Amino acid sequence: MPITVRDTLEVKMPQSPSAAFTLGPDFNVHDLPSQIGTGYSILEAETEQRDEEYLDTFDWRLLASGRALARSQRRYRLYSTNGDIICQDRGPAKLRPFCWDFSDGPLRDELKAAADIRALCPQVQMQQQRQHYNLLNADEKIVLRLRRDTMTAVFPGKEPEQFSSLHLYGIRGYSRPLQTVSRIIGQSGGLPVAEGEIFLVPALKAAGISPEKMRAKFAVSLQPDITVFEGLKDVGQALLADISMHQPGVIEDIDSEYLHDFRIALRRTRSLLSLYSRILPISACDYFRNEFKWITQTTNTVRDCDVYLLMTEEYQAMLPARLHPGLISYFEGLRTLRKKEFKLMRRRLKSQRAARLFSDWQAFLQEELQLLQEPKGKTSCRLFAAKMLKKRYKRILAKGSECGPESPDTMLHALRIQAKKLRYLLEFFRSLFSVDDVDQLIKHLKKLQNNLGEFNDLSVQQTMLGSFQSPVKTDSVERMLRVAAALGGLITHLADRQALVRGEFEENFLQFAGKDVQGLVKTIIGDSEHVSREDEDPPAA
């Protein structure tokens, strides 16, 4: 049976402290009575010691939700922001567990809500000493409870960091001791802990770790007077950093989101190269476009398998129970295929060809780009981005207007690609324009992208399900028939959903093509007289 906080806390305190402070190394709780006034004394209560390993997702999703997951052997505890236990249970022995590796109960539910499909990875080893105190008045009545947490945090590859915090729990009817002690701590250099801030944050700050950066959406801060080539350098290096950050997790196969984010960084890089293809040397541009296309294609099959495996529950909900055995067989075959394709992908990602690509791209951005004499590369990046924004928006309007009720899927697919190009352009150069206006345009664009993206996903799913061939050569005829029946049922459901999504396209497109969005584009671009109509985009690689 999972154990909840009410079953485990030995020291009865309010769930949240009245105040909390980070302390300097020289602070002494026993000095408080003399600083408060005569008649006060400090009495030590319970002492707890723990040596635990803290886990979180790569992008610190638990921390963002105000939780911290600790592990000691196979005992897992989930803590709140102030260090109180929310729930605990025995859990998996694997190094990086997922929420579905835990047994049913409060802990699994909490982890599923916060971590979702991401692996819970070891982040820091923490040695913790927790000392409880009671502040007594002259009548020996408890007028304030205190808890001092002293922690030593050991992050991989970093020196141990020690920090201390003091949590104050006020007692009803005795507000003055709480106020006085809070003032004394502040005067002695103690810093108030922000409300809702998880107790791990001071250790993370001391170690120079910024979870916010891991969770932040892609953004590059460009100087307003930057040149076209300087814009390429800054955006390209930011994307290369993204690629490098996620590649180890892809190779180790930690969770599917590493590959997802890795592919996004690759696609953005390819879009950036397409954007600059008219002003870069043909040989260099062709080399990088072809190589980034190759490495992206290397990941395609594994990502396809991940997408369908993550939809297991959704697919099961579409089918009656009698077809589930066939669906189970399908997913077994998919896992076999993924295992095979992953080995091939990992070998290519670790190859000299891949290493040479990233090294060459880094050298091109840092060194070779500065030597290019192309005049357009020395012009305003903002003006360049404005021209491309106008051009790509007009292209979407033109292609979207050609899509009618009987248009083939390929036309909507082509429109989806154009919408994605515009989205990447806005993300690359967002900081050169009014950020609020760009964000508003992206919000409108996302509605159209969501419609086109779902339509395309449903089309791709039907194609893949209809052409699926089991990698298990020993499949019996009966098993194959079960799989065929299940996939046939799925295709029917997906086709029905696709028809509904297709019917929503016109409304979404007309909204994006409307006067409000057109006016927003004009506002972002600014003086339209400076935005020429020259230089159409080259075809995609």
Please render the helix and strand layout as text.
Layout: E1 3-4, H1 5-8, E2 19-23, H2 32-36, E3 41-56, H3 61-64, E4 68-72, E5 75-79, E6 85-90, H4 106-115, E7 121-136, E8 142-154, E9 161-170, H5 175-187, E10 191-192, H6 201-206, H7 211-215, H8 228-252, H9 256-276, H10 282-298, H11 300-310, H12 312-318, H13 324-349, H14 352-371, H15 381-401, H16 409-429, H17 435-466, H18 477-512, H19 515-525
Antiparallel strand pairs: 1-6, 2-9, 2-10, 3-4, 3-7, 4-5, 5-6, 7-8, 8-9
Helix pairs in contact: 8-9, 8-14, 9-10, 9-16, 11-13, 13-18, 15-16, 15-19, 16-17, 17-18, 17-19
Please describe what this structure looks like.
The chain is an alpha+beta fold and 541 residues long. The chain folds into 2 domains: 3-212, Hypothetical Protein Pfu-838710-001 (Beta Barrel); 228-530, Alpha solenoid (CHAD domain), CATH 1.40.20. Helices cover 55% and strands 15% of the residues. The protein has 19 helices and 10 strands. It has helices at 5-8, 32-36, 61-64, 106-115, 175-187, 201-206, 211-215, 228-252, 256-276, 282-298, 300-310, 312-318, 324-349, 352-371, 381-401, 409-429, 435-466, 477-512, 515-525; strands spanning 3-4, 19-23, 41-56, 68-72, 75-79, 85-90, 121-136, 142-154, 161-170, 191-192. Strands 1-6-5-4-3-7-8-9-2-10 form a 10-stranded antiparallel beta sheet. Strand 7 (121-136) and strand 8 form a beta hairpin. Helix 13 packs across helix 18 (477-512) and helix 15 runs antiparallel to helix 19. The longest helix is centred in the C-terminal third of the chain and has 36 residues, at 477-512. The protein is globular and about 85 Å long. The relative contact order is 0.09.
